[in-house]
Structure formats: C-alpha cells, structure tokens
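anyone seen this seq b4? input:
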Amino acid sequence: MSPWSAARPGDRLTDVDTPALLLDLDAFERNLERMANALAGHGVRLRAHAKSHKTPKIALRQVALGAVGICCQKVSEAAVFVEAGIRDVLITNEVVGAGKLARLVALASRARIGVLADAAAPVCDLAQIAATAGAVIDVYVEVDVGRRCGVPPGEPTAELAALIAGFASLRFAGLHVYHGPAQHKRSAAERSAAIGFATDCAKVSRDAVLARGLACETITGAGTGTFLLERDSGIYNEVQAGSYVFMDRDYADNQPAPDDLGFEHALFVRTTVMSRPSGARAIVDAGLKASSVDSGMPKVWNHPGWRYLKASDEHGVLECTEASPPVLGEALMLIPGHCDPTVNLYDEIICFRGDRIEAVWPVAARGALL
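predicted toks r here
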C-alpha cells in the first residue's frame, strides 16, 4: 500500500497525483440509473457483479437502486462485502477444499450465501460442513455453455440438482447459465446467436429439473455485453452485469445493437507525460502496474490522434500523430482495456465530480483471491 493517497476530498482534479484510478461520479451514477431503468418492469432482477469494482461503496449504491444482492468470485471477496453490510451474496464460482468451504459456511450466519456446483464430491463436502454448522447454503448448478466450468445441459444438470436437493443443509436455488465469451463478441448478431444457444441450454435444463419434481426458482447469468438479450429471453430472471458501472474500452469496442443503452466511460487511469524522447513519442507513468492490458491497450481519452502503443512495468509509450502532441508534465486520462483487473491494481478509487475530488473509496476486496 502506498504511504500516501493520490488525492483527498476537496482537491482539484488537476492536483491528483499519478498514476491514479479515477471515477467520474456523474457518468457512474447515470450508468447505475440506466441499468436499474432497463430492468424495471421486466420481472428480471439485477445481481450486480462486484468482481468488477471490489468496492463496498459501489455495491451498497447498487443495492440501494434495487439490486437483489451481488456476485463475487471468491469466498474472501464475499467476506469483504458481508462485513460491509451486503446481505445477499452469490459466489459465481465452484469452491473446493475443506478450508474454503468452512469459511463459506461461516459467512452464512451473517448473510444469505450462494455458491455454484458442477460436481458431486464438493456438494457432498459442503453439505456435511453446513450440517455440522447448522447452516443452509444456496447451491446453483452451473450449466456449461461457454466451455469453462459447468455440467452439460439437460439430464446431467437435473441429476446434480436432485443430489443438492436431497441434503437438508443445502437448498437447490436454481441454474447458473453464464456465457462469458458472448460478452465480447464484436457483432450484435454474434452475441445474439451465442445467447440464443445459452437460452436453449437453460430451457432444456430447467425442463429437466422440473420433470424431477424440483422447483427451479432462479435462472441467473448475463453480463454487460448481453444482458438485454437475457432480459428478453423469457427464461432468465436474474442478470449479473458488473462492468456497466465503469464501461471499459473492450466493452466499448463491441458493435452496438439498435436497442443498446450506451453506458458511459466512467473509470479512468490518470497519468502524466514524464518523457518526450521524440516528436512522435511520449512516455507516461502508467504502465502494466497501472492498467491491465489482457484485453488490449488502454485508450487515450478525448485524443484520437494519440495511441497507447505498448507498456512495460512503469512506463507507457504513446504514439502521437496530432498536430498538438502532449507536452512534458501534461496529465492525460486513459480508458482501461479491462476494468476488473485494473481496479485490482489499486488501493483506492478517486471519485470526482466536475473539477473537484468528492470522495476516495477504498478498493476493500483488492487481492481477495482465496
């Protein structure tokens, strides 16, 4: 952790030290409201994915605007949000190992906790640990639609659901049907086809579960790139969008469908030009340790003639083709390529409105990997 903060509430935006992670509160709040309005009246609830922001202040705002709860990816991440007052958390991941399962069960004394399953052995382990603790845990069967985790749709899904339902310490809560690769398919037609496939898998799995006399309360999935498709599917009743609060460069590269909402860029990495080795090249102080590049390089905000060319640990190289290139000491705003791992690089988010810093929010679940 840095020995000092990049800014304090009341500072001017121009005084923020760099590199720093900044949030435009006006754009962020419009994004929150757009999502809430998009789901209102459709019988589909939002379970906001907190892995995007890892910040309880943001999760509490999402719940205040109607989110039923949040998603996390790790037990330790969930613990941070439960400690902050979130009372409904779904861990959208498989959890194995007695230590992790015991910690998951312990959280259930303070909040409603759900988890995914795609195999019998961890289900049996969780049931035993939960029974010993006198807890009841929500368990969702993950259906494989994106070639990652999950069981095949249909009867294999129903078989695992029946196993879960047979334990008094577990509650079969529904199906998790998330098509991750669909979120970043560039054309609207490709995204629609992928979610059509996922919806078919969800339907055949739901029908197989119902045929066994089990209730299937929730079918959950979707992300920022496709949630309107799941909303209108008639099958999903919960969506897990997360990146919509920030809208990174990679999501913005998707070609929009006619009805897309157009979330705004709200998250930025502020950086300073620290070297000008040539007229066409500028070096900034935000490199790999300031912005994740797994989904490509960040984009220079409001400067189409400046391209972030490459990154090393503490340096970013800009290629400049504009008539007025950046000058030494000039501060620039970068749009991260991928918001989730970028946020995980920072201890705090500097929140600004207009030209003033309004708040500094701790990224409290940073590094929560267990």
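Residues 188-211 form the longest helix (24 residues). The mean pLDDT is 96. kinda curious what u guys think
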